[in-house]
Amino acid sequence: MFTGFERGAFEFFMALQFNNNREFFHSNHAWYQASVRGPLSALCMDLAPGMLALDGELEVRPSRVISHINRDLRFSRDKSPYRDYMWLGYHRTGWPKRDCFHFYFDISAQSAHAGAAMYGDDRAWMDGIRRLIREDPARMAALLESARAAGFELKGQQYRRIARPEGLEGDLARWYACRSFYLERDLAPRELESAALVEQLLAGFGALKPVYDLMYQVRPERAPDAGEAGLRRIMDAPDADDDL
């Protein structure tokens, strides 16, 4: 059962920032397990029923939801072996991440956030949002206002040059110009240190569900990738111990 993150979690991430090497991690593996991995696993398990109530297709197994602390050095300019943050990411089971609008929670030494996001730039998907903004701006503005009332801020990179419909203002104009977007809320330390974080996260994700559902309604149809079947086999394989 999740009882909150203790100060040791933030202190571990801070120490890792200054000692990002295998020797430090191996000698402090028990600290990592007790203060970071253990609480994240408990949080993930306590969130699972509520997440499935939001979307029955979500992957909720901890091995698929909890990020790896090991950095994949093959594709990273940063060659430090470990991330100094971790997250929970809720994607639909068996779907490529690029096709998922997903819920997430992340934590580091300095901050923590919760929200819902696209995985990366996707013009075809965002064109569906732009079409709905043109057709029914009042409805789309109401969706953003509902998210804002729950504490979530619209973020994302925008096209520098894009023709906007006349009369669009504020967040609706920014949403229209987005290459991709996410809705995010900062979490205060007192929230992270309480078992009530479970219900707070579920309430926040629930407030984002109208946008979440809309994103799947406008998701473009795509031809399957050649390697998608292989990727699904990899996803279904048991994880190696990536925390050693």
From TrEMBL:
<dbReference type="InterPro" id="IPR015996">
    <property type="entry name" value="UCP028451"/>
</dbReference>
<protein>
    <submittedName>
        <fullName>DUF2461 domain-containing protein</fullName>
    </submittedName>
</protein>
<dbReference type="InterPro" id="IPR012808">
    <property type="entry name" value="CHP02453"/>
</dbReference>
<dbReference type="Pfam" id="PF09365">
    <property type="entry name" value="DUF2461"/>
</dbReference>
